[in-house]
Amino acid sequence: MEDQPKSNAKSIMLNYGLVLGLASIIVMLINYVFGDLYEPHWSIMVISLVITSAIIVMALKKFKEGNSGFLSVGEAIKTGLGISLVSAIIYCVYLLIFYNVIEPDYFTNMIEFQEQMIAERYPQLTDEQLEGAQKNAAMFASTGPNLTITIIVSLFFGLIISLVAGLVMKKSKED
Q1: Which residues contact 78 (CB under 8 A, 6 or more apart)?
Q2: Would you call 1 helix, strand, or coil by DSSP?
Q3: 21-39, pLDDT tens digit by residue?
């Protein structure tokens, strides 16, 4: 009986992680085609958060059903983090393709966009301050830091969503 939920959890993590990864890619593609790539509308973040929450909650419901109606907060967190990790890996593969094939000048354009935004929003900055801000922006304008941040953010939101959902949906044999 103990092995069944674990294999069920792995299957759920992989399946729902794949769905979430593909959904994330679709949202990014829609933003790329219709939105502003370098300054996305706030609604993109809201849509992504709603999709992530819905998929993790559906996965936890599926896990709970396959576990005789029982779900602990720990199982919810583990499953949610697994889904988030699978999704982040799939999304990072897409980002590698995006940065190298679809939009190879992405980081150059992003740096130029950020320089322009800094100059417009903070016209009082001295040349030295502006150069410091540009150096800070350039530190994150490469594939490695972006992929790392993507994974960390995905795991963070996965943790928060699965914790809240786990607290709401938990049911133990004592209950």
Answers
A1: 9
A2: coil
A3: 999 999 999 999 987 888 8
